[in-house]
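Figure S7 source data.
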Amino acid sequence: MKNKLGILGGGQLGMFICQAAKKHNIKTTIFSNSQKFSARGFCDNFLIGSFSDTILVEKFINSSDFFTIETENIPLQVLKLIEQKKKIFPSSNIVEIAQNRLKEKKFLNSISGIKTAKYKEINSFNDLENFYKLFGKTGILKSCEMGYDGKGQHHVSSKNIQKFKNYKFHGYILEEVLDFKKEISVLVCCSNKNTIFYPPVENIHKNSILRQTIHPARISDEIKNKALMLATKIASKLKLQGILAIEMFLMKNDELLINELAPRPHNSGHWSLDFCKYNQFESLIFSIFKKKLMNPEPINKCKMINVIGKDYEKKKIFSRKYKFYDYYKDEIKELRKMGHYTVKS
Ligand SMILES: Nc1ncnc2c1ncn2[C@@H]1O[C@H](COP(=O)(O)OP(=O)(O)OP(=O)(O)O)[C@@H](O)[C@H]1O
Ligand SMILES: [Mg+2]
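Tokens for the predicted adenosine-5'-triphosphate complex:
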């Protein structure tokens, strides 16, 4: 029986994947590049080391039948190596697009009916100066790779542009600053049998980090349907097998622009742990193990609140009052997601 799953990365998403796997009698092996990781107490086996350690990668490939990721920041060659011998969901082609903002933006804008914020590739200070003028003397400078929770991003304005004079501009884009109405996200999951969606949710960010998700998003049915239609288009272009989160900006004229893709379970889908019959992690397991995907069947309106940095010190209060999830991080860091809780609304 093929019931072994290898997971690249051992953070909280890996931890929740392990829990869903266990429920369905799937044995998990985590490959973590750090000693202390959230999934440690939840997986069946683990390997700790560098993704560039070929012997360890080989061992990992032999450990399982199927593979998945909990972060898109995994070296592409490791994913390709896995793909030569086994199956990985999502495929390396999808991760290749999602792990590089420039490739992602080019891909999205190549699909008819899909748009992103305006952007320019930045290779020098000269590029930065020229293009930020084009965007009205503002812009968000984003590293193309390895960014998450707003890391690797800088707001550029006439006040601080000189600061970037001696910057090494390898792998950056400048994005226009959008004056959006709301941020929403959609989760789409595809198996070889069927496709399901989690309803669009509304995401509230502060300092580029997700603070709160509201289910369902407070948008009209028309916008909701449009969001699902865009998600369908993107998933089908990617030939998705697995789960994909799509972050979108709802503009003041009701246009939807795509922000980014995450081909894995997503923080904005954590509400599904408590308020859906089938949560996002179980859907991922079903898609990998070639089962029919079940309609998520949302139960109630709710909010998911991230516990960030020092807020974690109040975890006893959160546990008493709400359904609190601890990510078992090794230490509290400013702007680090330490846990989350959900509240019925
Ligand atoms: N062009 C933009 N205009 C206005 N706000 C933006 C823009 N790009 C990003 N932001 C804000 O910053 C947040 C984080 O940006 P983005 O999603 O690109 O970064 P990230 O670091 O990859 O985040 P994560 O992977 O955690 O979602 C967005 O959710 C949004 O609130
Ligand atoms: Mg984002």
